[in-house]
Design goal:
The structure is a homodimer. Chain A is an alpha+beta fold. The first copy, chain A, has 9 helices and 14 strands. Helix content of chain A is about 30%, strand content about 25%. The interface between A and B is large, with 57 and 56 residues.
Chain lengths: ~300, ~300
C-alpha cells in the first residue's frame, strides 16, 4: 500500500494578499493528529468537501469541483475561499504522491476552531477503494425515502440541501440500510416521489436514445462526472436531458447508472430486488472514455 | 479565561475486559491537534455527542445523558460503548478542571479512522457561553420548516432523526437564518405542521396549569433538562404532558421556553415577530431550581 500524502491549506482569501500560494500550503503526516477537538468540522460536521479523481496523474474536473466547493461555501456562509491556493494544494498532494494509475484527492474545508472560525482545510491524496468490481459486475440498488419534498431547497434553504457538507452521517446510514436489504447502494427518492441522487453519486438513466439525470434544483448536487458523461454520450450521438424523474420511470428505464469521481460509472443491475436490463458493451465504452478524459 | 481540560477515552466495550477504566483514559492538551484527518467524525460527521451541564462541580443528569448516548450509538450501528469508562472520563475532566460555578462537558464519540473503525472519543470540560442574557432577557425565536413529516423517524429510520449526531451543519445554518431575521433562536416545525424542537434545545410550552413538550416519537431528542423540569413543575403543582403540538397552539400558549443542559431554561419573549406573554417570577423560580438540582 502506498502512503497517503497530506497537504494542510490556509484556504481563506486574505486581504491584502501578502503570502504567495506556496506559503499557505504545507506537507504534513496523515498518520499523526492534525485536527483539534474544538474544530467545528468534527464537533458539528460544519464544513464542506470535494473528492477529485486522478487517473494516470491527471486530475479530473478541477474547475467544476472548485466551482461546486465555492457554491457549498456560500450556502454555509463560510468566508470567501481562495480557490487558487486550494487548487495548488490539490496539485501538490498529487505531485508528492507516488505515481499510481488511480488516485483520489479528498479536499476538506471546515469552519475552523469554535470561537475563532478561521477555516481549516486540507487535501489528502490516497489510493481509494477498488471500484473495478462494481464497475464490471454492477450494483444492486435499493431506493430509500430522503424524507424531503423535491422542492425543499427552494422553500427551506437552511436545510443545506445541495451543499456538499461534512454532515454525512445519514449518507453512511443509508448504505448500512442497503446492506441489511442485501444491496450495495442507494438511490434517494423525495417524499413526493421524485428520483434524487445517491448518497455519494449522481443517478443517470437511459430512455431509448436519451440519457437523463434529475434536475439539480431539487436540492441535489451537480455531478462533475455526470457532466463529463453527458459530453461523452452526446459525442456518441445520444441526447442528454436534465429533468424531473419519477420513481416509476426509473423502474422502466433502458439502463440506470451511478456515477461519481471515485467509481466513475457503475451500472445498476438490480433495483429494489428486480433485475434491470444492462448493455455491457455500452457500459464498457462509457467507462473507458470517462477514465481517459482530461477535463 | 480558565483552561479547558481534555480527556481522551477508549470507549468501546472490550472482550475480555483486561484494562481498568483508568488505563483507557488519558489527559491531553486541547490546544494541540488530537484528531487525524481520516477520522470519520470529521470526514463524515459520523459520530455522536452529549453535552453535560456542571454546576458547582455537580454533573447534571449523568445517567440520562449516558442512556441517550447509548441510544444514539445504536441508531448509528456504532460498536457497543462502555458507559462506565465514558462516565469516568467525564468525571475526570470535571475533577481536573479548575473549580468554577458553571462548566460544560462535551462528550464526543466518532466511528474512528476510516477502514479501522475503532471509535475515537473524548470529554472536553470548558467554561461555555454565558447564558445569563438569554436566561433573564429571553429569546426572540423564529419557527423554521424542518422539511420532514412528524412521523419520519418511524417511516425512515435511516435518516437518523432522534440520534444526536455530529452531522449538525444544518443546526448551525438555521441559527444564521434566525439572525438574518433579527431573532436569536429557532423552533423546528415538521412539514406537516407539528412543533418539534430547537436545533440545540427542547421546546416547552405552558397551557393554563399544564407544561407540555412535543412527543419524542417525532424523531426529536429526549431532553435531559426537560425531564428534570417536568419533575420540578410537578412538585410545584402543575401537570406535565408529552403530546403532539401544532404550530398554532404554540402561538396561543401561556408561556414558551427552550431548555438545554447549557442554557438550562430561557423564556421565549417573541415568536415569529409577535411578543409572547412571560411570567418573570415563574421563569426565575424554574431556573433557580433547575440549576440547583442534583440528578
Amino acid at each position: 500500500m502506498t502512503e497517503a500524502v497530506l497537504v494542510i491549506i490556509d484556504p481563506a482569501t486574505k486581504q491584502p494578499q501578502g503570502a504567495s500560494p506556496g506559503d499557505r500550503l504545507r506537507l504534513a503526516d496523515p498518520a499523526e493528529p492534525q485536527i483539534r477537538v474544538t474544530d467545528l468540522g468534527i464537533t458539528r460536521g460544519d464544513g464542506i468537501f470535494e473528492t477529485f479523481g486522478v487517473f494516470d496523474g491527471e486530475i479530473q474536473a478541477m474547475q467544476p469541483h472548485l466551482a461546486r466547493l465555492a457554491r457549498s461555501a456560500r450556502m454555509l456562509d463560510l468566508p470567501e475561499l481562495d480557490l487558487e491556493v486550494i487548487e495548488e494544494g490539490v496539485r501538490l498532494a498529487v505531485r508528492e504522491h507516488e505515481s499510481v494509475p488511480q488516485l483520489s484527492v479528498k479536499l476538506v474545508v471546515t469552519r475552523g476552531i469554535e470561537g475563532i472560525e478561521d477555516p481549516t482545510a486540507w487535501a489528502l491524496a490516497f489510493v481509494g477503494e477498488d471500484y473495478s468490481g462494481r464497475q464490471h459486475n454492477g450494483l444492486k440498488v435499493v431506493t430509500l425515502d430522503r424524507g424531503y419534498r423535491h422542492d425543499v431547497a427552494q422553500t427551506s434553504p437552511w436545510l443545506l440541501q445541495g451543499a456538499k457538507t461534512l454532515s454525512y452521517a445519514l449518507n453512511k446510514a443509508v448504505i448500512r440500510e442497503a446492506k441489511r436489504r442485501g444491496a450495495d447502494e442507494v438511490i434517494f427518492i423525495s417524499s413526493d416521489g421524485y428520483v434524487l441522487e445517491g448518497p455519494n453519486s449522481t443517478v443517470i438513466m437511459r430512455v431509448d436514445q436519451s440519457f437523463v439525470t434529475p434536475r439539480t434544483d431539487q436540492g441535489i448536487l451537480e455531478g462533475t462526472t455526470q457532466h463529463a458523461l453527458f459530453g461523452i454520450v452526446e459525442s456518441l450521438g445520444y441526447r442528454s436531458e436534465y429533468r424531473y424523474v419519477m420513481k416509476d420511470e426509473l423502474d422502466r428505464a433502458d439502463g440506470v447508472w451511478l456515477v461519481s469521481s471515485g467509481q466513475q460509472l457503475s451500472p445498476v443491475v438490480e433495483l429494489d430486488g428486480r433485475p434491470l436490463v444492462r448493455d455491457i458493451e455500452l457500459d464498457q465504452a462509457l467507462l473507458k472514455r470517462l477514465m481517459a478524459r482530461t477535463d
